[in-house]
Amino acid sequence: MLRFVNYDIVFQEVPGEVTLAINISNCPNRCKGCHSPYLMEDRGEALSEENLAVLLEKYGNAITCVCFMGGDAAPQEIDNLAAFLQRKNARLKTGWYSGKTKLSPDCRLKHFNYIKLGPYIEQLGGLNSSSTNQRFYHVVDGEMVDMTYHFHKGN
Ligand code: SF4
Does 139 contact ligand 1 (Cβ within 6 A)? Predict the structure, then answer.
């Protein structure tokens, strides 16, 4: 069972969306220079359909997107929860920030509107660095369209 440590409403992580970003613990990626080392510990509340429903009840009208930040320890669960969100509120977009280089075969693109891939590599920087290895995709008609450039405007 995945767990989440906290969540926040954010504006930068998914361009053009008001996003409820859910920070998931037990990250297996162990990136050197990780922005949030506490996310490597297995802690927090269960990331269950019940708890997601509570968050939707509270914030559903204020947001346009829900993004899972992490969850590489159990990608099948992320896929199931994204499908649950789609069933629960068809208006909301779904996103996933994964630290893996490739999308897990356990995840089906039809359950996501946005996908970020790639570990954090200190010398290359995060998404807002023009030298980053990370990629941010908009899923359009079942294809992953690279829109990483959105994070470099104004650099
Ligand atoms: S994927 Fe993110 S949370 Fe996990 S170790 Fe890397 S930077 Fe930290």
Answer: no
Section 10-16 average pLDDT: 97
Strands 135-140 and 114-117: antiparallel
Mutate to test the pocket of ligand 1, among 35, 69, 100 (most ligand atoms within 8 A of CB): 35
Question: Is the Cβ atom of 39 under 6 angstroms away from ligand 1?
Answer: yes
Residues with Cβ within 8 Å of residue 34, at least 6 apart in sequence: 27, 40, 120
Name the residue range of residue 136's domain. Answer: 3-151
* Cα–Cα distance list, 27 to 38, 99, 114, 115 (Å): 9, 9, 20, 17
CA 5 – ligand 1 centroid, Å: 14
User: Exposed, middle or buried by CB within 10 Å (0-12, 13-18, 19+), for 66?
Assistant: buried
pLDDT of residue 153: 79
Counted domains in the chain: 1
So what's the pLDDT on residue 155?
66
Q: Percent of the chain beyond pLDDT 70?
A: 99
Note the pTM of the prediction, 2 decimals.
Answer: 0.97
